[in-house]
Amino acid sequence: KQDGYARFGGLIQNSRGVEDEDCLISEAAKEIGSEVIFRLPRSPTVQQCESKDSTVVSGAPDSDMAGLYRKLSKVLLDRSDDISGGMKIDDYSGCDGCN
User: Fold this and answer.
1) Alpha-carbon span 9 to 81, nearest angstrom
2) Residue 57 phi, psi (nearest 5)
3) How far apart are CA 41 and CA 19, in angstroms?
4) Which long-range contacts (CB under 8 A, 24 or more apart) does 75-83 make?
5) CB atoms within 10 A of CB 54
6) Domain contains 6
7) Whole-model pTM?
8) Helices (H) and strands (E) in the chain, counts
9) What is the DSSP letter of 60?
């Protein structure tokens, strides 16, 4: 549906650490005519921060996972440039840890 609000642009793999996971997800994406745009590894940092009612970027800002979430946010923003009618954020410096 093209209503100017959102568009499906690919899969984000939130890894569980199962055997051949990357291959399985890539094949699933191919079957639906899409692609994997980002892969997040399984990390105990996520559960540790969740148990403290915190995001990874706030609770473990210097962690590898926080860096990956920042990278994912940039990938999504870069991919959103060509969405007709979508919101384009010129400055996201106020975002929690996005700088």
Assistant:
1) 12
2) -65, -35
3) 13
4) 75/37, 75/38, 79/9, 79/10, 79/37, 83/7
5) 12
6) no
7) 0.74
8) 4, 2
9) S
Burial (0-12, 13-18, 19+ Cβ within 10 Å), 85? exposed
Count structural domains, the chain.
2
CA distance 14 to 31: 18
Looking at the chain, which runs of residues are DSSP E strands?
11-14, 36-40
The domain in which residue 72 lies consists of: 43-81
Is the domain of 38 the same as that of 49? no
Sequence letter at residue 87: M
For residue 87, what is the DSSP state?
-
74 and 49 in a common domain: yes
Residue type, 76: L
* 40-82 per-position pLDDT tens digit: 999 999 999 999 999 999 999 999 999 999 999 999 988 876 5
